[in-house]
């Protein structure tokens, strides 16, 4: 790749969120959140609906300006030096807005050139990524606007990987993805981490986080209520039981709804 990567000191955290805070109107979506993703770690962020995960990740990667706090990618301040930070990370945002009237290959070519990769590197990587994501063959004639939700996740992940980042920040990468594609994505992410990359993903699927991640954080009501190695956070219980206990959610038993039984 000919795009120059910023210099990174060994041992610097892959990602640090330092007191990130966001208020929408009267509502505090993220309340002074701190997180540290160690280099080489596979980090899972979990939390109930509305906990503030997407808001926190959007601020962390430079897509949403925080009211307070900052975020560093390998020591580079995301808001002070966005270009350097973006070279180091690949992002799959929630509800990714992609240029839609392009095929997957056209999209990768466009983004690759925008990121300063030479034409041959872009072409080689696009072919490899489309193959691995099972978006080659017939799918190559499909415009992104006609992609299914799962296909959009996969092309989104391909765009995140294209420039060879050292950190991936993925908001719900497995949502609406079929089991075969999920297995493919898991393999790619495991390979990325085995090669020295770092991943931060959010997910609602506890079993998946337990299977993939070595470190987890639990968010509830905008706060980080637990963070640490997976085994430490869940203790002797499952992550799901720990999660329910930590976030204090009431598990709905379907009381009421009597009309459903009629
Ligand atoms: N642009 C916005 N304007 C107003 N409120 C917002 C905005 N974005 C998020 N919120 C609110 O902030 C809270 C946190 O939302 P967020 O999407 O970050 O949660 P989440 O943990 O990602 O949820 P989910 O798991 O359902 O995706 C929610 O109550 C949401 O309604």
Summed up:
The protein is of the alpha/beta class.
How would you describe this structure to a colleague?
Helix content is 35%, strand content 23%. It is an alpha/beta fold and 262 residues long. It has a single domain (15-97, 151-261), classed as 3-Layer(aba) Sandwich (Rossmann fold). The relative contact order is 0.17. The mean pLDDT is 90. The structure holds adenosine-5'-triphosphate.
Query: Which strands sit side by side, in order, in the main sheet?
Result: 6-7-8-3-9-10
User: What is the share of helical residues?
Assistant: 25-40%
**What is the CATH H-level superfamily?**
P-loop containing nucleotide triphosphate hydrolases
At the first level of CATH, the class is Alpha Beta
Approximate shape: globular
Element-by-element helix/strand order: EEEHEEHEHHHEHEHEEHH
Main location: membrane
Membrane topology: Peripheral membrane protein
Organism: Actinokineospora diospyrosa
Pfam families: ABC_tran
